[in-house]
Q: What sequence folds into this?
């Protein structure tokens, strides 16, 4: 059991799952980044006590190198919450896709900004730009990388008027730019965490959620213990119960040592 401070109250809590964002949390913001040795070893120790999974905006294919490096098993959240997968078998166990009318509306709004919108093929992770005449029937997500902050904010504002989708922005692998990411309305990290809790047979307040960027608000809001990284957006730190050291300082290992491994 771990004694924690949350909302100015001391409570004893035995956590049953740790759900980690990837980029900026478990690994540095880089497409080829892998967890440090310290983080890998800490996660292995944590798995002896509770379930460890990821909750990432990455697609399944993009997540596989890290999943395999960590040797995770059981449910994890990928594609920004659009899919829950079994980390060991890579089988999709739950998903929500965007309907055709919503896709058309999203494409139309991006076109107003003269910006293309893309999706990922699920088998190859190829990035394919869409047009009003050519788009997949039910994609998991739509997005655009490399946007200036003010453009990303304006896009999010416009897209938020579509009632059937969820839209978020997050830092790109270029730290000066943003990604605008669109999924089904019920496909956020929060919805993914709800499904993980069902699959594990636990309550969401028994989950530790860890993240660093704007798309991690739903992850933290779904979790019993909300943790932001030292490199996290200030808005995320503001809602966190605990701010960990940065990803460069192996903050995930510190979290595990503090909240899971201490007796």
A:
């Amino acid at each position: 059991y771990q004694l924690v401070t949350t909302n100015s109250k001391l409570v004893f809590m035995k956590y049953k799952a740790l759900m980690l964002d990837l980029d900026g949390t478990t690994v540095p913001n880089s497409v080829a980044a892998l967890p440090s040795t310290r983080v890998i070893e800490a996660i292995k120790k944590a798995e002896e006590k509770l379930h460890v999974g990821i909750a990432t905006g990455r697609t399944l294919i993009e997540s596989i190198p890290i999943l395999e490096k960590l040797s995770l098993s059981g449910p994890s959240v990928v594609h920004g919450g659009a899919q829950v997968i079994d980390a060991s078998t890579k089988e999709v166990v739950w998903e929500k896709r965007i309907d055709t009318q919503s896709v058309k509306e999203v494409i139309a709004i991006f076109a107003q900004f003269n910006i293309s919108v893309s999706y990922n093929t699920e088998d190859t992770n190829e990035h394919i730009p869409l047009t009003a005449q050519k788009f997949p029937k039910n994609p998991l997500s739509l997005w655009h990388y490399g946007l200036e902050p003010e453009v990303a904010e304006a896009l999010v504002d416009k897209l938020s008027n579509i009632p059937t989708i969820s839209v978020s922005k997050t830092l790109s692998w270029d730290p000066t730019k943003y990604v605008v990411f669109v999924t089904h309305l019920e496909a956020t990290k929060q919805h993914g965490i709800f499904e993980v809790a069902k699959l594990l047979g636990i309550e969401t307040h028994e989950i530790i959620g860890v993240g660093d960027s704007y798309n991690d608000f739903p992850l933290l809001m779904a979790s019993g213990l909300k943790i932001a990284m030292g490199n996290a957006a200030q808005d995320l730190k503001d809602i966190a119960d605990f701010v960990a050291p940065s990803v460069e300082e192996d903050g995930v290992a510190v979290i595990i040592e503090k909240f899971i491994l201490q007796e």
Confidence is low (pLDDT under 50) at residues 5-11. The helical segments are 37-46, 60-70, 100-112, 149-159, 189-200, 217-221, 234-239, 251-261.
